[in-house]
Every structure is written in structure tokens, then in C-alpha cells.
Amino acid sequence: MVHSLRKLLFDVITSILVLSSVKCQLSEGDYCTIKNTERSGTCKLISTCPSAIQSLETLKILPQTCGFKGTEVIVCCIDGTSLITPPSIISTAESTSQRKTPVLRTTSTTTPATTTTITSPTEPVFLRVGDKSKAKCKEYEQYVYDYVVAGGEASLDCVISSVPQIVGGEQAQLKEFPHMAAIGFDISNNTIKWDCGGSLISERFILTAAHCLNHPLYGAAKYVRIGDLDLATDEDEAEPQEFTIIEKFEHPEHKGLSKYNDIALLKLDRDAILNTYARPACLETNNALDMTIKPTATGWGAIAWLSNTSSTLLKVNLEYFTHEQCSRAYKSNMGIRLRQGILDNSQICAGSHNESKDSCQGDSGGPLQIVNTERVCMYSVVGITSFGRGCGNVNVPGVYTRVSNYIEWIETIVWP
């Protein structure tokens, strides 16, 4: 315990020193105020401030700093309470007893100069790549519940199925993939062509493939729909929300028609309303795959090569292919768009070794996902549908962009 505490304090000191410079003027025992909350506290050694230690251990968040005493950090301590008090969840009628993890951002401010120059975050910061993604995943977990105003109780509304899908896939259920997004393009007569997929990963952002930003026939992607099941009807009991895309972020290393770094983010014109029909997915931050788990691909794509796309959301359970197996399958396709072959660090392969199961045209940009074992009724997106050889060819996997390789890039845009 003592060793872990010392390591924790060392990490705090190190993190503080590497951030932008701030002049510090408070000493142990001085009164202090938490920035942006106006809550008052007392400057104490971090080892004597339970609320600061709790925030570090549970949220990996740096408390507000007063100064140093030797090598130990003096923090603004709120005795007997947590340093971070999450706001209440607000239902459509009234607030409940549930709590919501705050959106955390890092800012830098400077106070009047003194003889000692140190670094101090004015708001909590995350220490490692992936911490933001995990914290937001935990926050969005609240939307798996339907909140009942009477009594302030919440009921779990989970539609994740553990039943294997039939060969070739089957229709998804209402609310089963609430992060699923359809990406639309303008065609004649004010009609929208929904021809790519994506994943809602925050109130304002969709994760998709870079090659979905522009369609060879219909031009630039312009619209996003979430919370839907059947795109062709209003009688499926879904609660769809439709948005205009106001900004696109193509990965800077994606080049033209290349198959590498096939990942992009779409910013919506307003925040999505989060509920059991539409809520963000978690992002897989671990590079290592559990090859025993069968990931699920979803989309409104074609059910066979060169066939029409489906208006109803489809799902299919797949198997991971090893890098060696995938490389063999694409050995004859390593042309100008795949010069380096399949890259294990940034691509994932999934399909079936003995059945005709795959993603297909129209599924591009959609998620390859697994059930998140740390959160209730949540998926983690491990891949983004990128390309393949036809559709449903036995022992020929589809190729997906590996999300874990791009977490830092995603976090800097979605949760700066």
C-alpha cells in the first residue's frame, strides 16, 4: 500500500512538471478555491487529503495544485468529499438519483509570478492515452437504463443477444446496436441515399471509414441518422434522429484510394439526444485481440455481392483471422492500394473459415464490435469496415481498420 501510494505521488509530480508552466503562490494551510466550481478548500499535502487520493485512484485525475513541500505536492483539498462531484442525470421529466461522469478537459492559466515556477492543471486531466475513452464509456453506460419518474428508479433496457446468428446474418433487434449510424448522400429529387455506416462515439461525433467521406457516384457525405432500425419505414417503433454533417476529419495519413489508415470522424450539427435507442459505443483501447471471442459486424449493406442494400439493420457473427491467414488470403491483391500487404498493427481481419458470412457493399464504415465485459450492456468498437474480396467468400476475411491504433488521434478531436 505504501509503495503504491508513493508511486502514485511520483506520477502526480511527474505529470504536473511536464504540463504548461504556472506560477504558484499558496502554501500548506492556505485557503484555496477549486477552479470553475468556486468550492473552497484548504491547501494540504496530498498524502493527507483522502478526496485527492480517491480521485487519483478511481479516475486517474490530477487534483488542483497549491504548491510543493519538498518533493510532495500540496493540493487544494475538499475535506470529506470527492474532489469531483458529478452532476445529476436529468430525465425528460425530472432529475433522478443517478450520477453522470463529468466531461473533462485540460486548460492552462497563469497566476501572478513568484520565485517558483511549477505546473498546475486548472481542471482534471487524463494521464494516459485511452483514459478519456474509458471514462466516456463509463459515462455513456447510464443510457442503457430507462428512467422511471415515479420513485426515481431505473430499469435496465438491454437488448444485447448472446444467441449466434444464422449463416449469412440476420436482422438486428430494436435497440440492439444503439450506436449504429447510417451515413447519407444527396441524390436526385431531394432523396438521401444511405450507403455507408458508422458508429456514434459521443454526443457529437461519428466514427467511420475515410473512404466513406466521398461516394464515387453521389459525392460528399452530408447526413447521419442514428437510433433507427429500418431506414425505409416509420413503423418499426424506432426513434431515429437525423443530422447534417458540419465537419469531417480524415486521418492525415490516409492517401487517396489507399487501403491504409481508412478512418475518419464526422461532426454533427448538434448534440445527439442519448437514450436507449441511441447511445455511444465504447472504443477498444487494447491492441491485443482475444481470438476466442466472435466479433459482430453490423450494417445496412448488401446481402450478397452486387445485390441491393438492406433497408433493415443486419448483424452477423464472425471469427478473427490471424495476420498470417489474412496475408495469405490477400497475397494476390497487393497492388498499388495495398503495397505493404495487411498491416497487423492497424488492420484486423474477420470472416468465416467454413461459412458464407461477411460484411458487404454499403456496410463500409460500420463497426466490428464485441460486448464490453467491464460495462453493463455496452459494445466496444474494435474495427471499422474497410474492404474485402467480394462478399461472403469462405476463408476470405474482410479487412477492418483497427480502432485501438488510432485512440490518441480520436481523443484529441472528440474530447480535446
UniProtKB/TrEMBL annotation:
One cellular component (GO) term of this entry: extracellular region
Pfam families per record: Trypsin
Domain Peptidase S1: start-end pairs: 166-415
Protein name in UniProt: Peptidase S1 domain-containing protein
Leader sequence segment: 1-29
Gene3D superfamilies in the record: Trypsin-like serine proteases
GO biological process, one term: proteolysis
CDD domains: Tryp_SPc
Subcellular compartments: Secreted
A GO term, aspect molecular function: serine-type endopeptidase activity
UniProtKB keywords: Disulfide bond, Hydrolase, Protease, Secreted, Serine protease, Signal
